[in-house]
Amino acid sequence: MVDAATPLAALSPSAAAARLDLIEARIVAACAAAGRARAEVSLVAVSKEQPDDAVRAFHALGVRDFGENKVQALLARAERLADLADVRWHLIGALQTNKAKDLARAPLAMLHTVDRPELVTALGKRLDATRPLPCLIQVNIDREPQKAGVLPEALDPLVELVLATQCLALAGLMAIPRPLDESGVAELAASFEAMRVLGERVADRIGRACVLSMGMSDDFELAIAHGSTCVRVGSSLFGPRTYTLNSV
Ligand SMILES: *Cc1c(COP(=O)(O)O)cnc(C)c1O
Question: Would you say the pTM of this structure is higher than 0.85?
Answer without folding.
Answer: yes
